[in-house]
């Protein structure tokens, strides 16, 4: 099996002005052009769940009250995963290339969470017009905006 190496490119920060990504200095040039986008996908490391016990979990009880029972971790958004990688979408509120910061309107990550990658949201690649999910999942918000308004966290 191949060994992978992932290094943080920055961290989530929660400041008085709200959440933002603070990049490490070598990655500041990577911000060029991001200001043309409205939203980003942030891949981050569930650092507080990076331990042998959580990495060994293969089934979880979903956070949905009507779930039929334990589900495979790949059918969940659980922080317990073989590799504790999380994906969040956020609206960009500002890009400060000089300071290496990307302002976010909301995030479900905690202050100090390592960021491993950032990708612009693109409807042509990221939006699914006709998606399917189980009926018992229907008690969760139907959009990013509704999740943000509800203050949902993992």
UniProtKB/TrEMBL annotation:
Q: Is this entry keyworded Ribosomal protein?
A: no
Q: Which SUPFAM superfamilies match?
A: YaeB-like
Q: Tell me the keywords, alphabetical order.
A: S-adenosyl-L-methionine
Record has Chloroplast as a keyword: no
What InterPro entries has UniProt attached to this entry? TrmO-like_N, UPF0066_cons_site, YaeB-like, YaeB-like_sf, YaeB_N_sf
Pfam families xref list: TrmO_N
Domain (TsaA-like) ranges? 6-130
Q: Which PANTHER family match?
A: TRNA (ADENINE(37)-N6)-METHYLTRANSFERASE
- NCBIfam families, alphabetized: tRNA_TsaA
Q: Say which family it is in.
A: Belongs to the tRNA methyltransferase O family.
Q: What is this protein called?
A: tRNA (N6-threonylcarbamoyladenosine(37)-N6)-methyltransferase TrmO
């Amino acid at each position: 099996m191949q060994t992978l190496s992932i290094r943080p490119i920055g961290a989530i920060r929660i400041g008085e002005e709200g959440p933002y990504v603070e990049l490490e200095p070598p990655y500041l040039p990577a911000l060029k052009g991001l200001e043309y986008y409205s939203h980003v996908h942030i891949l981050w490391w569930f650092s507080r769940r990076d331990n042998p016990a959580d990495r060994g979990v293969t089934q979880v009880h979903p956070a949905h009250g009507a779930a039929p029972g334990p589900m495979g971790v790949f059918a969940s958004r659980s922080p317990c995963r073989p590799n504790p990688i999380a994906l969040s979408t956020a609206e960009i509120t500002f890009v400060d290339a000089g300071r290496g910061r990307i302002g976010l309107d909301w995030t479900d990550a905690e202050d100090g969470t390592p960021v491993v990658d950032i990708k612009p949201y693109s409807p042509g690649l990221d939006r699914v017009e006709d998606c399917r999910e189980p009926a018992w999942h229907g008690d969760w918000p139907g959009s990013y905006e509704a999740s943000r308004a509800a203050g949902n966290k993992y």
